[in-house]
Each structure stands twice: as structure tokens, then as C-alpha cells.
Amino acid sequence: MENKGEIAVISMVRNDTFFADKWIEYYGTQFGFKNLYLFIDGLDQDIPAKANKINHFQKPHKPQKRAAGDRNRARMISNFAKKLFSDYQVVLAMDIDEFLVLDPIKKISLKEYLLQDFSTSSRSALGLDVGQHPVLEHPIDHNKTFLSQREFAQLSSRYTKPIVAFKPLKWGSGFHRVKGKNYTIDNHLYLFHFGLVDYSSATSKASNKEIKDAGWKDHLDRRFNLYRLLKAGIIHQESFIEKGRKTLQKKRSWFAWNKPAPLKGHALIKIPERFNSIV
Questions:
Q1: Maximum CA pair distance of the chain?
Q2: DSSP string over 136-170
Q3: What is the C-alpha end-to-end distance of the chain, expressed in Å?
Q4: What is the DSSP string of 17-82?
Q5: Range list of H helices, 165-235
Q6: How far is CA 236 from the centre of its chain?
Q7: SS3 of 215, please?
Q8: Which domains occur in the chain, in start order?
Q9: From CA 154, how far away is CA 152, in angstroms rounded?
């Protein structure tokens, strides 16, 4: 494999017409399009419009229940990332609706930041689960950045993921943990999860028969609780973010020591305006 750059990014997509091209454009701009690797899950799938800019691989789809599918996807991408380390210093892996962002306060690029010397084998970004406010916000306009249209997110242990790898490792299902390794939540990295950023798109996807048959219904019902929380309107200010980060770094369940335990309460925050133009 020819050496294309210092940082590689991997994801997989199926049944998505909403996020793939944004994922390609965002990470391609950050790290170079030829350093992106996208697996398209199914020969029945349309190729994203911008996929010709990146490395993409279309593979036959194997129907699986949600848990088994998540495990196999993490295993496949971990093995693929291991090969990439012969050409890259850093490998990122995430779901197609997740966007890694460096706090603009740092005043350097995300690439420059990740190429620093870190003492850990991976880095977790603080998870912010962004949703459309059911009353105050309109459907997403793809001609504008998402964060210029969304004000609120839930600070989330679930999306505080070790998606940044500095050496070969084995991710667990959904990239929520690294097998056999502890985690370190970076003080300046955020993972914006946009699965619920557009209510109409999210509910339409949830009604897909294939997704229901794979056992996603209960999971999505729990996820959609974010819309109800947003409507209730109890929002923390920015100072809560740092408190939440420190709690997630320390708090974990005895049966899941290598990923953060959920925060108590709703943990809704107002997204700082300095992020508006980034993604």
C-alpha cells in the first residue's frame, strides 16, 4: 500500500443517504481524501456521491442481529486498522454519523493535534449526542453546517468513545471500548453524534423493516428519549461540560471497567457557539 499520509479514517455504511457524503467531506478536508477508507455494506447499496474521492470497498451484506453485527464490524475494522499502521501514525474509526472535533480554543488543526506525542495507545473524545429540538429547531439544511442549526446536545457516556488509535488494538462493539485497555478522555476532543440531528430522517430510518428485524427497535426507542428531554428544556451551561468530563473519566461500572459509566440525570448542555462553523 502506498503511503498516503499520517492519519487514516475508517467507517462503514449501510442504508444511509444522510451522513455518508458529509462524513467524506469533513474527514477528507481534515486529513486528505485518499486517507479515508469506507466500507459499503451490501451490493444492493448506492455508492455515496463523493465516494470517488476516497478509498471505498463494497462488500456483500450478511444479515445479522444487532449485537452480532456490531461485534463483527468492530472485529473487521480492527483487523483492517492493524494493516494500516504500516503506513499511518494514527488511525481513527467511527460510525458514519460521528464527527471528531478539536475545540477551536486550541487554534491548531485537528491533524496537528493528533500528530502530537501521546502516552496512551488510544484517546477517547467526549461524546455529545446532538438532537433536533422538537419545537425550536427546523429540519437540517445540508447547505449549512449542522452545528449552526442545532443548539443542544446530551453529554453522553455512550458516545465517549476511544476512536483515536495510536497503535494496533481491538475495538469492542460500536467502538465503545478497547478490549483489555483502559481509556483516557482527552481534554480537547469532542465526538459529535448526529444520529438524531434531524427528526424526520431519524424516525424514517427507524421504521425501516430491515432495521426492525435486526433487533434495533428497543435500542432506538431508548435513543429517541433525547427528543423528549429536549422538549422538557432543562439545559446546563458550558461549565457543566468540564464537570461531566471529569466524572466520566473516573466513574465506571465494575462489570465494564474500560468504558465510562452513564452520568446521572439528563446531562443536556447548550453547545458553545465557537463550534458552529466546524461541522
A1: 52
A2: T-PPP-TTS-GGGT--EEEEESTT----EESS---
A3: 30
A4: SSSHHHHHHHHHHHH-GGGEEEEEE-TTSPPPTTGGGSEEEEE------HHHHHHHHHHHHHHHHH
A5: 199-206, 209-213, 217-223, 225-232
A6: 22
A7: coil
A8: 7-275 (3.90.550)
A9: 7
Q: Is 222 helix (H, G, I), strand (E, B) or coil?
A: helix
Q: How many CA atoms lie within 13 A of 56 on its CB side?
A: 24
Amino acid of residue 210 = E
Cα separation, 167 vs 189, in Å, equals 18
Amino acid at residue number 19 = F
Extract the C-alpha cell encoding 129. 449526542
Q: Is 255 helix (H, G, I), strand (E, B) or coil?
A: coil
Give me the tens of pLDDT residue by residue for the chain, a chain 279 residues long. Answer: 344 579 999 999 999 989 999 999 999 999 999 999 999 999 999 999 999 999 999 999 998 888 888 999 999 999 999 999 999 999 999 999 999 999 999 999 999 999 999 999 999 999 999 999 999 999 999 999 999 999 999 999 999 999 999 999 999 999 999 999 999 999 999 999 999 999 999 998 877 777 766 666 676 778 899 999 999 988 998 999 999 999 999 999 888 999 999 998 889 999 999 999 999
Q: Could you give phi then psi for residue 28, rounded to 5 degrees?
A: -65, -40
Produce one character per residue of 137-159: b if its CB has 16 or more CB atoms within 10 Å, e if not. beebeeeebbbebbbbbbbbbbb
Give me 55's grid cell: 478509498
